[in-house]
Amino acid sequence: MLEDLGVEDGHGVLEIGTGSGYNAALLSARLGDGLVYSVDINPDLVESARSRLTTAGFQPHLAVGDGRSGYPAPSVFDRIIATCSVPGVPAAWIEQTRPGGVILADLSLGIEGGLVRLAVDEERRALGHFTTATGRFMAARGDARAYSQRERAPYAPVADKRASKVTAADIRAHYPFRLVAAFHLPGVELVYQVDDETGDMALQLQRRDGAWARFPLTGANLGTVTYGGAADLWEQTEAAWLWWNDHGRPAQDRFGWARETDGSEYAWHIPDGRRWLLGA
C-alpha cells in the first residue's frame, strides 16, 4: 500500500487507523515525522503506538477520533491512507486532500471489496481505480470498543432450488468476479453457511430484507442454488458471472471508482465505460 501511495519528499500524509504505529513509523522514516499524521478511534492504541514510536525515535502527530471524519484539527494532506475498510469514501477525506493529492483506501462493498487509489481534482471529485493488491481490513467504527451491527429481517422461507450457471467454487476462486458481483448487488453480503444436520458448507448471499441465495461448497448438488425470498440475488449473480466471462475475465485493476461532488459513487469497467452506481 505504501508503494501504491506514491509519497514524495515534502508530502504530508494522514493515516486512518494508527494501530500498532508500525505504518506511521515507516512513513516517518521516509518523510520525517513532522509530515506524518495518524488518527485512531481507540485511545489505548494511540497511547501504546505513541510509546513505541517515541522509543523508535519518531514523534508524528497522533490523535484520537473517528477516522471517517478525517484528522480532528483543520489540515490538508497530499496523501491519505486508510488501514480500515469503509463502504464509501468519506466526504471529510476529500475535503482534507489537496487538489492533485491521493487517497488510498479499502472499500468494503458487501460481497467483496478492494483497495482503490483515487486522485482528488480541483472540483473535489475523487477518481481512480482498484489496485492489483487485494488486502482487506477491519471495518472503521465510531466506537472504540464495538462495531455496529447491521439489522436484518429473518431469513425468508425456501422458495425454490434450481440449476445454476455459477457455482460456489466459481465464486470462491475468482476475486475479480466477486468484485463484479458486488457491483451488480450493492449492499448484499457473502457469508459461509454450515448445515447443522449434515455439516455441508455453502456460500450464501443475503440481503437485509431476508432474501438469500445459497450455493453448496460440499456435499451433493454442487451445481444448484437454493433461494428464499425474491429470486433476484442468484439471477443477478448469474448475470454478473456471464458478464465477467463475456468480457474476458478482467482483473480488478480494470475497474475504476469515482466519488462525485454530490457524494454519489460508482464503479466502471475501464475498457468500455460500463458503470454501476453504488452510493449517494
Q: Please report the distance between the alpha carbons of the first and last residues.
A: 27 Å
> Can you summarize the main beta sheet?
10 strands, mixed
Unreliable stretches (pLDDT < 50, length at least 5) are none
Q: How do the strands line up in the largest sheet? A: 3-2-1-4-5-6-7-13-14-15
Based on secondary structure, the structural category is: alpha+beta
Provide the fold topology:
Layout lengths: L1 H4 L7 E4 L5 H10 L4 E5 L2 H13 L5 E4 L12 E10 L4 H5 L1 E12 L4 E8 L5 E5 L27 E6 L4 H6 L1 H10 L4 E6 L6 E6 L5 E5 L7 E5 L3 H15 L8 E5 L5 E5 L5 E5 L1
Parallel strand pairs: 1-2, 1-4, 2-3, 4-5
Antiparallel strand pairs: 5-6, 6-7, 7-13, 8-12, 9-10, 10-11, 11-12, 13-14, 14-15
Structure description:
This protein has 280 residues and is an alpha+beta fold. It has helices at 2-5, 22-31, 43-55, 91-95, 168-173, 175-184, 232-246, and strands spanning 13-16, 36-40, 61-64, 77-86, 97-108, 113-120, 126-130, 158-163, 189-194, 201-206, 212-216, 224-228, 255-259, 265-269, 275-279. A 10-stranded mixed β-sheet has the order 3-2-1-4-5-6-7-13-14-15. Strands 8-12-11-10-9 form a 5-stranded antiparallel β-sheet. A hairpin with a 5-residue loop joins β13 and β14 (265-269). α6 (175-184) crosses α7 (232-246).
Short description:
The chain has helices at residues 2-5, 22-31, 43-55, 91-95, 168-173, 175-184, 232-246; strands at residues 13-16, 36-40, 61-64, 77-86, 97-108, 113-120, 126-130, 158-163, 189-194, 201-206, 212-216, 224-228, 255-259, 265-269, 275-279.
